[in-house]
Amino acid sequence: MRHGKKVNHLSRTDSHRRAMLANMASSLILHKRITTTLAKAKALRVYVEPIITKSKDDTTHSRRTVFSYLQNKEVVSILFRDVAAKVANRPGGYTRILKMGNRLGDNASMALIELVDYNEVYKSGEAAVEKKSTRRRGSKSKKSAETSAAKPTPVIAPPADTELQESSAELVEESPVVETEAAVEDAPQAETEARDEESSSEAEEKKEE
């Protein structure tokens, strides 16, 4: 009996099981998602997630430890170069299992296991959900918007034309000057007329004498 034994041996010997999980983990790191049975997907998740956590510490010891599990240099380099940078801010939970129904041949339950950070469909949905913001009925932003809408927009008078004002001021200042110049020009004419009148009056007095 297997009471209390939580490890699923998958009907394989220990060496066969470890080799199979290493190959599946390498395929998952290369292709970012694979399709397998539900039992194998659950076993693979327990196997590959500690390896991904180990890849966050990029040291020679970590690379040798990961290589002892995967036995593939290309996969190890991809894991430490690309996948580790992608999952750097995620504290665990690097994989997702999606059930896909039963297989036609033996009716085995199938599943798709993938790396969470490489699924663009789920990411776009999460981004759309994050944009929505729920507010209370009496929030400050709504009140401020209502008050701004209620306040009438002040009408700003256009600035006076400074050139017209300056020209009018110049005309006002020049007008008395023009009048004085005209009076100065008329003064000699008035004097000559007065002299002519005096001379004519003197001539008339002489004639009368």
Task: Kindly describe this structure.
This protein has 209 residues and is mainly alpha-helical. Among the domains are: 14-120, 50s Ribosomal Protein L17, Chain: A (Alpha-Beta Complex); 178-209. The protein has 7 helices and 3 strands; from the N terminus they run H-E-H-H-H-E-E-H-H-H. It has helices at residues 14-31, 38-55, 60-70, 73-86, 120-131, 140-150, 162-208, and strands at residues 33-37, 95-102, 109-115. It has a 3-stranded antiparallel sheet. Helix 1 crosses helix 2 (38-55) and helix 3 (60-70) packs across helix 4. The longest helix is centred in the C-terminal third of the chain and has 47 residues, at 162-208. The protein is rod-shaped, with a radius of gyration of 51 Å. The model has no long low-confidence stretch (mean pLDDT 80).
How would you describe this structure in keywords?
50s Ribosomal Protein L17, Chain: A; 209 residues; mainly alpha
Strand and helix layout:
Blueprint: H1 14-31, E1 33-37, H2 38-55, H3 60-70, H4 73-86, E2 95-102, E3 109-115, H5 120-131, H6 140-150, H7 162-208
Antiparallel strand pairs: 1-3, 2-3
Helix pairs in contact: 1-2, 3-4
Number of strands: 3
Task: Tell me the series of helices and strands, N- to C-terminal.
Answer: HEHHHEEHHH
CATH superfamily of the domain at 14-120: Ribosomal protein L17
Helices, by number, come to 7
Low-confidence stretches: none
Radius of gyration based on Cα positions: 51 Å
Average pLDDT taken over every residue: 80
> Level of helix content?
55-70%
Shape: rod-shaped
CATH hierarchy, class of the domain at 14-120? Alpha Beta
CATH architecture level-2 label of the domain at 14-120: Alpha-Beta Complex
N-end to C-end Cα span: 175 Å
| Major pleated sheet | 3 strands, antiparallel
Classify the secondary structure makeup into a structural class. Answer: mainly alpha
CATH topology (fold) name of the domain at 14-120: 50s Ribosomal Protein L17, Chain: A
Q: Strand order of the main beta sheet, please? A: 1-3-2
Beta-strand content: 5-15%
